[in-house]
Amino acid sequence: MLLQLPLPASWARIIPRRDPQERLTALKADVVEAKARIRAVLDDLAERHGLPAKDIDDAMGYADDMLSDAIYSAERDLEQEIEDRDPV
Q1: What's the predicted TM-score (pTM) here?
Q2: Do residues 8 and 15 make contact, with C-beta atoms less than 8 angstroms apart?
Q3: 4 has a pLDDT exceeding 90
Q4: Cβ–Cβ < 8 Å for 27, 55
Q5: Measured CA angle at 45 (ends 58, 66), to 5 deg
């Protein structure tokens, strides 16, 4: 005999889910913080070793691209969740 359980499970209903807009805002804020921390490390490296500011700026461009790539799928998932919740 098979037993079909109702979905979602009762334990899943008690787990509070944060609003996807709040999660997206938090993700973007964390990315800004990560960029600031990376910049601080690169500025410190430049100061200690006399690296040109242009090279540091170029490295920040790579870091920006890297962070964008790293969060792309999570950001898209959250944006999709927001769109699904509030259709235009």
Answers
A1: 0.75
A2: no
A3: no
A4: no
A5: 40
